[in-house]
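Why predict the complex rather than its parts? Because the way molecules touch one another can change local conformation, and only a joint prediction can capture that. The input here totals 334 residues.
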Amino acid sequence: MPESARVGSAPPHRRPRKATTLDGELKVFAGSSNRALAERIAARLDQPLGSVRLEQFPDGEARVQINENVRGTDVFVIQSTSAPVDVNLMQLLIMIDALRRASAGRITAVIPYFGYARQEKKSSGREPITAKLVANLLEAAGASRVITLDLHAPAVQGFFDIPVDHLQASPLLAESLGRVASDDLVVVSPDAGGVARAYDFSQRLENSSLAVVFKDRMAPDEIQTLSVVGEVDGRTAVIVDDLISTGGTLAEGARALLERGAKAVFACATHGIFSGHALENLKRSGLSQAFVTDSVPVNSDSKACTITQVGTATLFAEAVRRVHNDESITAMFK
Ligand code: R5P
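Output of the joint prediction:
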């Protein structure tokens, strides 16, 4: 079979894309999920945000109109797929489709918070792998590459057949934590699956040890601690996680650590989703302070709950600049 015929019959998300190096100018567009972060990223790149009309038809369908020429340009679309997750995801897909049909030279989806990443495997029969479905959808829409931050499971990168630049918030979070707590630290993974993340974080702090909370999730918003492994008595504990959703994991972890003699409990989590009664849960838990990034827009109530947001605009702007100039992203984390 000739090469062209085989390529032509491949499903859209498997079709080879244009080489990454291109000469076009850089343009940045924002979806509506986290406009404030997108504006900060664009400002650091010394770029205006591209003009795009984002609306909904009366029946709820998304409507997108790109208002400027993007032919041959290196386009970056900033959109967290945070709540409302499906609305924001669909808007991102439609923006990418519009840009592809407008002949953009390359389209990079910049997804500070990648929703659905927690559904990355089947935990029981007849479940979907929704993270893989989302990867397929982004490629089918026309994304040439993805820049994202602290995926729930790094293996989700492998769900894509396009390049994924996976940024880390741990240097920023560790620096912010260091301003308020630095002595006798024990870095705590709130579950067995997060040990590698906690270990990596502990390497960024001087003289810290490691502990693990073993938990069981009885229901989506109900967590029970089974045991804590590691020395926490008399130490300042720092729970490290990828995200805070209902706050159940963190609240239960903080209670378990305080019961076992921790002097204080802090938390560093990349994505502050704070769904449902998360903030009330955290207030009641005895947690001293939580650091999250601005990958998801801040909820004004969170300020009353000792939540500190750490900015990622400089991180994303630098990643966009490097991708545009074909420079190393790995070098940013050495
Ligand atoms: C779980 O594997 C994740 O890493 C988080 O610990 C979890 O998703 C946090 O969710 P919640 O705040 O609802 O307990």
